[in-house]
Amino acid sequence: MDNTQEFKRGFWAEGVPFIWLSGIAVLILVGMVVGLMGLILANGGAYFWPSNLAKFNMKDGTFVLGQVIRKESPKESEKGPRTQVKIANRDIQGLDFKWINDQDVAKVEYPTDAAVIERLEYG
To answer: What is the pLDDT of residues 48-73, one digit of tens each?
Structure first.
């Protein structure tokens, strides 16, 4: 018996290819779990870290304070460019979100002394 037959028989008999395949499969699965955890942290972190509050000073002298959720271009809205703001003041104004036309805004500020505080229902 020559060395090549002995190598092949020992190589397959000991299951070396399957050990390597199992190791590669474990490496891929660990990578997938780490990737999934990273995706959850990246997308879910915004829920626990609120965005900055914007104060929209309107041309009529009033203001709106809230989180900017979305902006629409003039192509998306027939009223021109506008911004959706989360005011979350349903008890007083009956609205959670409000659309603001950009042409009605005099100035936008980002106050550092304003914060978002979530309260419980009926609390």
So the answer is: 777 789 999 999 999 999 889 888 88
